[in-house]
Design a protein that fits this description.
Order of helices and strands: HEEEHEEEHEEEEEEEEEEEE
CATH class of the largest domain: Mainly Beta
CATH architecture of the largest domain: Sandwich
Structural class: mainly beta
Radius of gyration: 24 Å
Strand content: 35-45%
Oligomer: single chain
Helix content: under 10%
Number of helices: 3
Mean pLDDT: 85
Number of domains: 2
């Protein structure tokens, strides 16, 4: 056998060394989201083995598996959540724009309905449920740091932003009073969804989404959204999801539902205006009331 030339031997040695290295690839400087999370509420105190699950997805709720996820469970999790804030980081993300959401789960009760668990999103729950808003931009150059937000009871429904009536600057407020003779149980869920375009399937997310469940679900119930983009909306769907098994899709025959939809004229939302509606789940009707000016309610 002819001896191997020196240059060929060196090249083989380099390839073999590269293949045998035990070093892991370095995490890139960017391609990650980090920040702190604080918990506001009492549900955490009744959990025996709480863990915070943080994920990044293109939409909320995510379609399929999230694009990135991390589980955070330090020994002092509760004191950090209720105090200075719990640090988290989601790494190895593909450069894109993401919704960031966190939920506290109890490992001793893994099958607990998500609507009964504390949840929050960046920068707040109201922005989280608006498609295209509150997105965290991820790139390769630097991490998306200081992505801080809070977690609230009732799957985020107790976020103070859900109770705000005065429209944000340049936005409009929708206020819906919901009536029903039904006596909700602990598993029932009230869902209020507003669309600018008629949904063609269950995967189409509404432009405004509010979910009320647990102890907060009583009648009459008042749901508000003060972050609406001014314009026309073709469908308002108010659904009392009996048993909470319909997800984010439309009501089924087992549920109570009221709609404001064609052939009714589109709902018009003007900037710096409060639009009042009344939904009667017994009759399945939604009535448009007189709008209000924010100044009449003390908004400035």
């Amino acid at each position: 056998m002819r001896p191997m030339r020196p240059c060929i031997a060196a090249a083989v040695a380099i390839v073999l060394c590269s293949a045998c290295t035990s070093e892991y690839p370095q995490v890139p400087e960017g391609n990650r989201i980090s920040g702190t999370i604080k918990c506001h509420g009492s549900a955490l105190s009744s959990m025996r083995r709480p863990v915070v699950r943080v994920n990044a997805s293109v939409t909320f709720p995510p379609v399929g598996q999230p694009n990135g996820v991390t589980m955070v469970n330090p020994p002092d999790l509760v004191s950090q959540l209720m105090g200075p804030g719990l640090p988290y980081e989601i790494a190895w993300l593909v450069p894109y724009s993401y919704k960031v959401v966190a939920q506290i789960v109890d490992l001793d009760i893994p099958n607990l309905d998500y609507a009964a668990l504390p949840l929050g999103g960046y920068p707040d729950y109201c922005t989280l449920v608006h498609p295209g808003e509150g997105l965290v931009v991820v790139n390769e150059d630097k991490p998306a740091a200081s992505t801080n937000f809070g977690i609230y009871d009732q799957a985020g429904a107790n976020d103070p932003c859900t109770l705000a009536l005065c429209p944000q600057s340049g936005k409009s407020t929708m206020r819906v009073v919901i009536k029903s003779s039904h006596n909700p149980t602990g598993n029932d869920r009230l869902r209020v969804a507003l669309f600018q375009v008629l949904p063609t399937d269950a995967s189409q997310m509404p432009d405004s989404l509010r979910i009320v469940s647990g102890g907060a679900l009583t009648f009459p119930n008042v749901v508000t959204d003060n972050t609406l983009i001014p314009g026309s909306y073709v469908l308002l769907d108010v659904c009392l999801d009996i048993g909470g098994d319909s997800g984010t899709g439309r009501c089924t025959s087992d549920d109570f539902d009221a709609e404001y939809a064609p052939p009714s004229a589109p709902l018009m939302f003007s900037a710096d205006q409060i639009v009042n509606l009344t939904a009667d789940l017994d009759s399945g009707t939604i009535t448009l009331e007189d709008p209000q000016r924010p100044a009449d309610l003390g908004c400035f």
